[in-house]
Amino acid sequence: MPDAEPSRPRLRADARRSIDTLLTAAAEVFAESGVDAPVRQITARAGVGAGTLYRHFPQRSDLIAAVFRHEVDACADTAPALAADHAPVEALRLWLLRFTHFIATKRGLSAALHSGDPAYDSLPSYFQLRLVPALSGLLAAAAKSGEIRTDTDPNDLLRAVANLTLPAQDDDGHTGRMVGLMLDGLRYGGAIRR
Fold first, then answer.
1. Which of 38, 137, 148, 181 has the most CB atoms within 10 Å of its CB?
2. What pLDDT score does 129 carry?
């Protein structure tokens, strides 16, 4: 069975910060302008030169894949903090809302990620490797508390919640209401051990 968290290459702290800054800037620019935004827009926001970007990400597909992984990691890494700071069902609710934000902001990457470029081949398994364990832990804690049903498949829930974000604009709170409705469904029979 693979490790729950893939290992990252060892980098100096300043190099890691530089890459993280580039990935954050690229994610913001991609969300605003799409994945075809000019490199200078990304480097200007990150405060680095084009050489720094190309040294770490020689192809645009390398950058897009790295942004996706970075965002998956950020989403997965919120689960333990939420579990430590909130009651189990509240932690689950907050993480599901965080996940909907992740999905909604990645819509612009969809065309690139489904382009057939081999740079993206490992991304679906990376998504599963990082997000399924994060959600599984939250589900297990909420089920153990007796507040939700015990037979929830994390893959089914990830897919269902991702589908809630289809209306890209959440002006009227649609996604939050749908997450609440879904949690009510998980609570149905929560005390019943199956």
1. 148
2. 95
